[in-house]
Amino acid sequence: MQSAERTGLVLGLVGVVCFGLTLPATRIALTGLDPWLIGLGRGVVAGIAAAVILAAMRAGWPPRDAWRGLCIAAGGVVLGFPLFATLAMQYAPAAHGAVVLAILPLMTAVGGALLAGERPSLGFWVCSVAGTLAVLVFALLEGAGNEGFHAADLLLAAAVIAAAVGYAEGGRLARTMGGWQVICWVLVISAPVLAAFLLLWGTPINWTASLYAWGGFLYLALVSQLLAFFAWYQGMALGGVAKVGQLQLLQTFVTLVAAWALLGERITWLQIAFACLVVAIVAIGRNMQVTRPKS
């Protein structure tokens, strides 16, 4: 059991590092591409790649009782989070988004309790409320006097909820299906819907966009939306949704460093202070007891 949990934590860490570049990559893609193409098109490209992988591996169809969960996960991690996060990055720096998204680990634990049958202790829930309040205070302080940040914070909040639901449901399914099959089927299911939405809402594709912008888009499609989930969902299956989800506390720092290195964004002391505060709260919550269902 300990060995499985250790492996789960390692896989989860790999996923966190990959996810940590998502917001900076989104900002890069937005330099030349339409936000609807980024938010929806990344799932279409990833879905095509996923279909190729499933065919190459000769994977069988998911069991009948898994389809509902796959649709829920798809709504969270393929439609909800990418779209809301992309729209938010039009109004806020990636560094700001990194701090707001720091509450995602605890929200993932909430999803684990509601959808995956895990039972965090009272102390864990206390930390969850404290972390949420800290993020709300940060959003209000940094958003003061800048109406754009208010819109971004609402979009980021929606992204957090969508991701938490998608992570928890996908982690539950990965216990029996395997992490790579879960995300591949989630993407294949989503691709036709995303393509239809893109035709309705998207603008003509800017094929002349810079390689810089297209590079950001391809990272989102093939790494953030596909390969990172191979490790992430399998890590949750082995180590538990709540426990592995807490590794996302490191994602804040990965994103802050990437925003500075790739985008030249200025990192403020307010961002650093609140990132450390939220991470400390989440770290305390990680040590609280979480009871997992027997499988």
How would you sum up this structure, described in words?
This protein is mostly helical and 295 residues long. It has one domain. The protein has 13 helices and two strands, in the order ααααααβαααααααβ. The chain has a two-stranded antiparallel sheet with strand order 1-2. Helix 7 packs antiparallel against helix 8. The radius of gyration is 18 Å and the shape is globular. The chain starts with a helix and ends with a strand. The mean pLDDT is 86.
As residue ranges, the low-confidence spans are none
Identify the strand order in the major beta sheet: 1-2
Helix content: over 70%
Tally of discrete structural domains: 1
Number of strands: 2
Query: Could you give the order of the helices and strands?
Result: HHHHHHEHHHHHHHE
Strand fraction: under 5%
Task: Give the overall pLDDT as a whole number.
Answer: 86
Observed structural traits:
295 residues; mainly alpha; two-stranded antiparallel ribbon; globular
Helices and strands, with pairings:
Layout: H1 2-20, H2 22-29, H3 35-56, H4 67-88, H5 94-100, H6 104-115, E1 119-120, H7 122-143, H8 147-177, H9 179-201, H10 211-239, H11 241-245, H12 251-263, H13 269-286, E2 290-291
Antiparallel strand pairs: 1-2
Helix pairs in contact: 1-10, 1-12, 2-5, 2-10, 2-12, 3-4, 3-9, 3-10, 4-8, 4-9, 5-12, 5-13, 6-8, 7-8, 7-13, 8-9, 8-10, 9-10
